[in-house]
Amino acid sequence: MGQKELVQENGSRPALIRAMGRWDLTAVGVNQVIGSGIFIMPATVALTVGIPSSLLPWVAAGMANALIVLCFAEAGTRFREAGGPYAYARTAFGPFVGFEVAWMMWVTRVVSQAALANAFALYVGRFWPPATEGPGRLVVVTLLLVALAGINLAGVRYGSLAINFFTVSKLAPIALFLGVGIFFIEPGNFEGMFDFGGGTGTFGAAVLMLMFTFGGYELITIPASEARSPRRDAPRALLLTIGIVFAIYFLVQLVVVGTLPGLDTSTTPLADAGEAFAGPRFGTVIAIGGLLSIAGSNAGSMLAGPRVTFALGDKGQLPAFFAHVHGRYRTPDVSILIYSGVAIALAYSGTFAQLATLSAVARIVFYMTTCAAVPVLRRRVEAPADAFELPGGMLVPGLALIVSVVILANASEADLKGGGIALAIGAAFYLLTKLSGKRP
Predict the structure, then answer these.
(1) What are the distances in angstroms from CA 322 to CA 74, 83, 332, 359?
(2) What is the pLDDT of residue 231?
(3) If you average pLDDT over residues 83-111, what whole number do you get?
(4) Cβ atoms within 10 A of the Cβ of 2, count?
(5) CA 125 to chain centre
(6) b or e along 335-360 (b: 16 or more beta carbons within 10 Å of the residue's beta carbon)?
(7) 142, 344 in Cβ contact below 8 A?
(8) What are the residue boundaries of the structural domains of the chain, listed by start?
(9) Measured between alpha carbons, how far apart are the two ends of the chain, in Å?
């Protein structure tokens, strides 16, 4: 059927449509990584490290994520099914570990979706003050999430087109910021740029924070069963994503440090820097870029997040209705509706703020699982002739695991306990499903 190949896993229900190409997948990754973080994280990292000009945490986080991305690239080249890290963990370590990975991915994603929806309302509040609280906030949150759910229910192609739009809309203001700001850099602002700051503890804490900002590329691998050539395109999209993101982040950090002397005291560093070197109107343009960035991250999450529960339902680890595919639009409609409903409820209640600190820890956990799965998958899953394989045997996966453990060691006791509780809840769901007689 050409570029619209159907995934006929069985004849009992409609299959998902393979409509996404390499650049669609790259757009998913770039949108997920370049979210609201880049518009606020430069100031947060500067305050944590204690030296506003320090660039080393960004370099360290970029290198750590590059190692992890390489592991995802090799693992992804061996699969055509939906699920991403869940599929890798399940194949390598069994259904329970796979379920726990998917559970942590889903929790991280739906909480992030709710958090970003509220952040979107706050950014709207710069132009319409009632959006920040009360009924106005509920209206903005509801309209955003319902609209994105509707787009994705209508078809994966519409969802990916929306992401492509937000990618251009978000990168254009950043490109403008870089193109103008680079001419206003003050070299004296870079004094101490290679210092570690207050010590290894604060440096490690800053790198852990940046796992929020660099995270999200794993979502490229989740809608694999809706990609035209996932074994070829997913690894390339992963590598393209981390390369594009690191280049943008590093350049943004250079301009912010070089143009905003009080970086560690700013709450909106890019907008403040833009206003400082080009005036209030320019600062407003950058603020609008932040608004589009958050909307883009929400669009990407709405595309990829429901595919996690779709994969779990498809494997019998959640009730079968999660794997329901719409007869006309060929999208996982039930998973999309449940996901958006939970996100809206969390956004209304505000309880997602208490869970937001878990996202970095949860993300690192399933990153480590993917890295550990690489050598196991080499033995268990036959690679296609053109498969991407890492050189050096265990060198890259081993380094990625060590780096992940070092970063995780900088998490607070409360964050680690929260992660443990989330895993325990997932284990309870798995046990209940198993006791009910469901067979994965």
Answers:
(1) 28, 13, 8, 23
(2) 62
(3) 86
(4) 6
(5) 25
(6) bbebbbebbbebbbeeebeebebbbb
(7) yes
(8) 17-435
(9) 31
What are the distances in angstroms from CA 259 to CA 34, 187, 193, 263?
21, 9, 14, 9
Q: What would you measure as the largest C-alpha separation in the chain, in angstroms?
A: 67
Q: Return the exposure string of 198-218: e unless at least 16 CB atoms fall within 10 Å of the residue's CB, then b.
A: eeeebbbbbbbbbbbbbbbbb
Task: Give residue 159's pLDDT band: very low, low, confident or very high (50, 70, 90).
Answer: low
Q: Is the pLDDT of residue 356 over 60?
A: no
| Distance from C-alpha of 302 to C-alpha of 293, rounded to nearest angstrom | 14
Query: Between helices 95-124 and 413-435, what is the axis angle to 10°?
Result: 120
Integer CA distances (angstroms), 202 to 44, 108, 348, 361, in order: 12, 24, 34, 17
The CA-based angle 291-294-298, given to 5 degrees, is: 140
- Which residue matches tokens 């890259």? 396
Contact 368, 401 (CB under 8 A): yes
The answer for residues whose C-beta is within 8 angstroms of residue 297's C-beta and 6 or more apart is 31, 32, 35, 36, 112, 116, 216
Quickly state the pLDDT bin for 83 (edges 50, 70, 90): low
* CA R_g for the chain: 21
pTM: 0.77
Which pLDDT belongs to residue 9?
A: 42
**What angle in degrees, to the nearest 10, is found between the helix axes of 358-380 and 56-76?**
40
Most confident of 174-183, 201-210, 323-332: 174-183
Q: How far apart are the C-alpha atoms of 129 and 395, rounded to whole Å?
A: 53
Overall fold of domain 17-435: Amino acid/polyamine transporter I (1.20.1740)
Q: What is the mean pLDDT of residues 52-61?
A: 89
Please say whether the beta carbons of 224 and 84 come within 8 A: yes
Are 307 and 430 in contact by the 8 Å Cβ rule? The answer is no
Tens of pLDDT, residues 281-292: 998 988 888 888
